[in-house]
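Table S4 entry, Extracellular solute-binding protein, family 3.
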Amino acid sequence: MKKLVLLLCCCLALTQIQTAAQETKLGAFVYPPFYVEQNGQIEGIAVEIITELFERLHLNWNLTMYPLKRALKYMETGKLDAIIILIKNPERAEYIDFTDPVITVRGLIWSAADRGAIEFAQLSDLSRYKLGVTLGYSYGPEFDQLVQSFPHVDPVNSDLLNFTKLLNNRIEAFPCNEIVAKSLFKQNPELQGKFTHAPNAFITWDLRIGISKKSPLVEKIETINSILTALHKEEVIEQLVKKYIE
């Protein structure tokens, strides 16, 4: 009897090890509304896309929240298989393969509604405004470089604080991802209808799935791209985004 129990325990342990080995290890980072951690659970647009995608891939997955720099390091070493919703750049492309875009999002210049939309033909036109930015964010290489020479730039810790400062006339303009901005307005009803934005985007970001070049998932990139095409054709991704911003 003892031998039988021991054998069953060994079989169970082996099954658990095999299951863990077969799980695709995904990294997340704080980026609402794409990734939000609440009560120990990771939620958001990206998580819902992961669920749809991996169900169609017939793969198990495990998602862990990390600081972005650490997640990228784990991608480089192969400790993580993939990060869903990632911007491609030359540095990352050295150790990450990227899918077709999952979501394309506009970077917009926001202002208080009672002030009116700020119009600009080129980024340097924004130098005459008192500009708010969020610490730790990149607004694209051109914007990041130009803003260093702007005379009136006020960095703070969050997008929400920048929108509050717009309302209080402490800044005149603020660059922000359209989806991020609209999700903030939905979460904070007191902000709804209080802002407008320039008609033209200062940048568009293609958010992709990044796959570690050391991961076996790389072999499935063509399949993943086909699934992404289907998800767009079925408007699955578009409907997921709407749920968080409308």
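Residues 12 and 18 are 10 Å apart (CA to CA).
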